[in-house]
């Protein structure tokens, strides 16, 4: 029989009673969840239910008004998003958030801004091109000229370039 501590040992992400607002509008209330290492977790809900707000709160884009966010045992509540990425958590926001005036290749390299391992970064760029061959074909093209689906491929690949342990997809 496992103890509570044993069950929580594999938890990589935990939200405890998180509330976040957009001005006076409370978008999420009392959200709690745990994600264990190796799990794939999905948050379901209708439009406006707060799915994106949960992810923005986890990744530090939106500061919660209550509750806490813990990642790998560290409280990351309201931490700067760049520091959260450096700890191994990447977020792919909805809406194909790419840098439209940068090339596809430069967008990928922006995803690796936290890394110093140049050779591994080059291998990961090649890996992205293997996953999404159209990105190789368009490597020198401005990202804003890609189709919507291609921009989403780029956004996912850019998040992978940070070599995250956990990735949030919106």
Structure description:
The model has no long low-confidence stretch (mean pLDDT 93). The chain has 7 helices and 6 strands, in the order αββαββαβααααβ. The protein has helices spanning 4-8, 51-58, 81-86, 104-111, 118-131, 133-137, 148-160, and strands at residues 11-22, 25-36, 66-71, 74-75, 89-92, 166-169. With 170 residues, the chain is α+β, with helices and mostly antiparallel strands.
- Identify the overall geometry: globular
Strand content: 15-25%
Give a quick account of the main beta sheet: strands, pairing sense, barrel closure.
4 strands, antiparallel
Helix content: 25-40%
Helix-strand sequence: HEEHEEHEHHHHE
Count up the helices. 7
Low-confidence stretches: none
Number of strands: 6
Query: What is the gyration radius calculated from CA atoms?
Result: 17 Å
Distance between the termini: 36 Å
* Main sheet: strand order: 2-1-3-4
Mean pLDDT: 93
Q: Please state the structural category.
A: alpha+beta
List the helices and strands and how they pair.
Blueprint: H1 4-8, E1 11-22, E2 25-36, H2 51-58, E3 66-71, E4 74-75, H3 81-86, E5 89-92, H4 104-111, H5 118-131, H6 133-137, H7 148-160, E6 166-169
Parallel strand pairs: 5-6
Antiparallel strand pairs: 1-2, 1-3, 3-4
Helix pairs in contact: 4-7, 5-7
């Amino acid at each position: 029989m496992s103890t509570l501590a044993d069950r929580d040992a594999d938890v990589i992400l935990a939200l405890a009673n998180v509330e976040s607002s957009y001005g006076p509008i409370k978008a999420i209330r009392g959200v709690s969840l745990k994600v264990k290492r190796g799990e794939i977790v999905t948050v379901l809900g209708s439009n406006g239910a707060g799915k994106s707000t949960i992810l923005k709160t986890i990744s530090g884009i939106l500061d919660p008004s209550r509750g806490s966010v813990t990642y790998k045992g560290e409280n990351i509540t309201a931490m700067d998003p760049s520091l959260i990425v450096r700890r191994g958590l990447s977020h792919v926001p909805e809406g194909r958030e790419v840098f439209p005036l940068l090339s596809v290749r430069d967008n990928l390299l922006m995803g690796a801004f936290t890394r110093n391992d140049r050779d591994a970064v080059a291998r990961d760029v090649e890996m992205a091109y293997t996953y999404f061959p159209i990105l190789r074909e368009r490597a020198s093209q401005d990202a804003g000229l890609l189709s919507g689906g291609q921009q989403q491929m780029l956004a996912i690949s850019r998040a992978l370039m940070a070599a995250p342990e956990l990735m949030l997809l919106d």
